[in-house]
Amino acid sequence: MEVFEDFELTQEQILHLQSLETLHQSENATFDEPEEVFQIPQSRKRRRILSDEEEDEPVSPSLSGHTPPSAKWFRPRGKQPRIIPFTEIPGLKPYALRQELSSGEPGDFYSLLVNEQMFQHIADQTNIFAQQTIDKASTKAKSRVKLWVPTDKEEIKRFFGLIIWMGIVKLPKVVDYWSVDEMLGQDFAKKTMSRNRFELLLRMLHFSDNTVAVKNDRLSKIRTVVDNLNHTFAFHFTPNEYLCVDESMIPFRGRIIFRQYNKSKRHKYGIKLFKLCTTPGYTTKLEVYAGKTVDSDCNTPTNVVLNLAHNLLGKGHTMFVDNWYTSLELAEKLIQQDTHLVGTLRKNRRNLPKDVMNANLKPGEFIAKENESGVTVMKWKDKRDVYLLSTKHSIGFIKKNNKRGEEKIKPKIVIDYNKAKAAVDLSDQMTAYSSPLRKTLKWYKKLGIELLLNTAVVNARVLFQSTTKKKMPVVDFRKSLSKYLICSTKENITQSAPRPKRQKHVLKKNEGSAVKTRKFCRDCYKKNVALHGRKVAKNKTKKVTWFCPICPDNPYLCRECFDQCH
Question: Which residues have CB under 8 Å from 531's CB, separation 6+?
Answer without folding.
Answer: 537
